[in-house]
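Input protein
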Amino acid sequence: MKIDNIKTRQEFYDFADVWYQRTHKLRGIWQDKSQTTVKREKAYLLFKVMLQRVMKLTQVAIKINQPLPKK
């Protein structure tokens, strides 16, 4: 699913959860000493990218959960 295709709040949260789970898995690989150095390096680089994406999604989640301004 692409971000542009998200129409509902539930789809957004499902999408954000997938990205969070990927980030968490990459962190686990990066910190696992039994993995090869090359795999750990790749996981670290991808972890940094995914972490930035999750941080952006967190900002959007905060924004969509704000109450609407009173008129």
Notes: The mean pLDDT is 90.
